[in-house]
Specification:
about 90% helix, mainly alpha
Length: about 60
């Protein structure tokens, strides 16, 4: 698998995982879990964008 595809898949995985943590933190009134989820979701979006850039550059 190309690294660009792998980055995009891993990025999407982290986005979904982060969203789940974020919602779980809101439901359980746990601001630390909510913040951790938000951070992971943002990191996943960044990783997905890295994959898109790699695809453009053919890596």
């Amino acid at each position: 698998m190309k690294s660009s595809t792998q980055d995009k898949l891993e990025g999407k995985f982290h986005e979904v995982k982060g969203k789940i943590k974020e919602v779980a933190g809101k439901i359980s009134d746990n601001p630390n879990l909510e913040a951790e989820g938000t951070g992971e979701k943002v990191a996943g979006k960044v990783q997905g964008k890295v994959g898109e850039v790699k695809k453009v550059w053919g890596k």
